[in-house]
Structure formats: structure tokens, C-alpha cells
Amino acid sequence: xxxxxDILDPAKGLFKLSSNNVALQxxxxxxxxxxxxxxxxxxxRLIAKGLIEKLDFEVDFTKSFLKHILxxxxxxxxxxxxxxxxxxx
Length: 89
Hints:
The chain is mostly helical. The protein has 4 helices and 2 strands. The chain has one domain: Hect, E3 ligase catalytic domains (Hect, E3 ligase catalytic domain fold, Alpha-Beta Complex), CATH 3.90.1750. A two-stranded antiparallel sheet has the order 1-2.
């Protein structure tokens, strides 16, 4: 999961630390990174693969970002028989 750690690094410009300096959220300036949408898609796939394979990786996203992800993909998650508990375990 070294690639995921690299993508999530706030110094790369795709994500930023929230006000508590612990949780991550997408950076409002991520559009400055070339091919930023491709990088976000890749990060999402790496996270999904880690969840499917039950790999341990520490990623702290803000609650608002997690709610946004779940709201937009609730039907997809249910179709694929994911449990919301996996995301918060």
C-alpha cells in the first residue's frame, strides 16, 4: 500500500489535513496537480482493493468526506454486498 501512502501525502497536493491535523480530505487546490482526477480514481481503487482483501492500512478521512463517499456510492456498495461496517471497522 506504498502507492496509496504516496497519493495521500498532503505534500503531493491531492489531499490536505483537516483543521485537527489528523484526518485527510480532498484539497480544494487538487486541480493544480496534472491528471488529478486520474489520481483520485486510482486512490479509490487502491482503497477498494484493500477493503476487499481485508488489508490493514491507516487512513483517517474526515467524517464529511466519508459521508460524501457513502452517499454517492450507497447503491454500488449494496449491490456488491459490502457492509458499511467495513468502512468504519
